[in-house]
Amino acid sequence: MTSSVSLNRRKFLASGAAAGCGLALPDMAMAKDVFTKGKAEHVISIWLGGGMGQIDTFDPKGKGDPKKKRAGSYYDSIETAVPGVRVCEHLSQLAPLMDRVTAVRSVHHEVIDEHAAATNRMHTGRPVSGTIAYPSLGSIIAHERGSADEGAPPYVLIGYPNVTRGPGFLGTRDSYLYMTDTSQGPAGLTRPDGITPQRQSRREDFLSVLKRNADPTTNQRLLDYDTAIEQSLKLSGPEFMRVFELDREPADLRNRYGGEFGQRCLLSRRLIERGVRFIEVSHNLNFLNGIGWDVHNEGILNQHKLIQELDTALATLINDLEAKHMLDKTLIAITTEFGRPPEFDSGGGRGHQGTAFSCVLAGGGLLHCGAWGETDEVAKKIVSNPVSVPDFLATICAALGIDYRKSLYDGDRPVPITNMGRPLGKLFS
What is the CATH number for 307? Predict the structure, then answer.
């Protein structure tokens, strides 16, 4: 990290205000139409599918008891590097790093009954519409910033493709390159057996002849398709494909990252080094317990394994980025479709809760304070500093220097880029 940011953080902690960051008066930057601008260059967005329970992770409260149906946390909590900010006991590796982190504990929306609708809300900042296909945050950032290197795609999804991650009305050019297995890389960029470099070259020459002899077109879909072909040909070469060779990393580092989810986080670091602007790392539902973070009934019994896996990978990613002097330029964002209520269901697990839940920011050159916002004694209601989904997405945009006040256009129709969201200005030094 740069010395100026480290100094700012030390001054902030020394003032005793860090733990109260989420208790502060309403942010002036939210009240004024002032462009808050950060200096981050990349985003690693970690998606926890199923609904991470805030009360069992980043917003712990008093201990509950599922057998006695007493609402509360499932686990004990521990202190962190930020005075007054506690996290779940299974986040033990992350706890000493919380001065590089802000758990935004007061995110909220009204969607709780349907995972797909809530997933769409968290990726686009808007409800599903029957008249317009809204772009995801990843596509917005790809559209606004492009890749950091012309030899890399702007947007990579490490997980299964889904329309909620897509470009919407922005078009194919701002879509993602995806992969589901870190050991293989993107299947669509791998040449079939028997396609030698010579055959590939002949095919590209033939394609060029066809394009030269074709009638000119102004059809945007065809133009976007041509752009996608050109980018695919560029990315299928050995120079970019080497980024997926994780065995080039020291064995000790790979082991510290952990299993497949951790390897995805390691790959995300390699991708941003190569010039990718936005990466979503999905914690797939079939990891560890078969249901991901959707811990109804007995599903909660192995929830601690998910938390420990997140703890291992995230702490290692933060340390790795910091060691390479990349943390200030890389914003890590952890999101999930909603939280979990403090009450236990009939099987001892938890239902869905959108009224108050936690998302997390780390690195990115922000002035972190451990926690932002406050919920009541059971993490069910927001007590101070509510943060809408558009506000959270606007904070990410602002960190990358993207004007969250502007509009994009679906044809002639103006669409506010973050649905009128305002960033958490106190996180910007």
Answer: 3.40.720.10
Q: How far apart are the first and last CA of the chain?
A: 14
CA separation for the pair 111, 93 (Å, rounded): 32
SS3 372: strand
Task: Report d(CA 334, CA 357) in Å as an integer.
Answer: 12
Give the CA angle between residues 387, 392, 394 to the nearest 5°. Answer: 125
The rounded distance, in Å, linking the Cα atoms of 147 and 154 is: 4
Where do runs of H (alpha helix) occur along 251-334? 251-257, 260-274, 303-323
pLDDT score for 15 = 43
- Is 193 part of a structural domain of the chain? no
Instruction: List Cα–Cα distances, 37 to 10, 321, 399, 416, in angstroms.
Output: 22, 22, 6, 18
180 lies in some domain? yes
Query: Which residues are CB-neighbours of 264 under 8 A, at least 6 positions away?
Result: 158, 159, 182, 281, 282, 313
Tell me the C-alpha distance between 309 and 300, whole Å.
15
Q: Which of 378, 278, 283 is nearest to 337 (CA)?
A: 283
| 264-268 contacts at long range (C-beta below 8 A, 24 or more positions apart) | 264/158, 264/159, 264/182, 264/313, 265/44, 265/46, 265/313, 265/314, 265/316, 265/317, 266/182, 266/316, 266/317, 266/320, 267/158, 267/182, 267/243, 268/44, 268/156, 268/158, 268/317
Burial class (CB in 10 A: 0-12, 13-18, 19+), 262: buried
Domain enclosing residue 93, as ranges: 3-186+253-427
Does the pTM of the predicted model rise above 0.85?
yes
* Cα separation, 269 vs 355, whole angstroms: 33
Q: What's the pLDDT score for residue 1? A: 46
Least confident span in 8-12, 118-122, 256-260, 409-413: 8-12
Q: What is the pLDDT of residue 21?
A: 61
210 inside domain: no
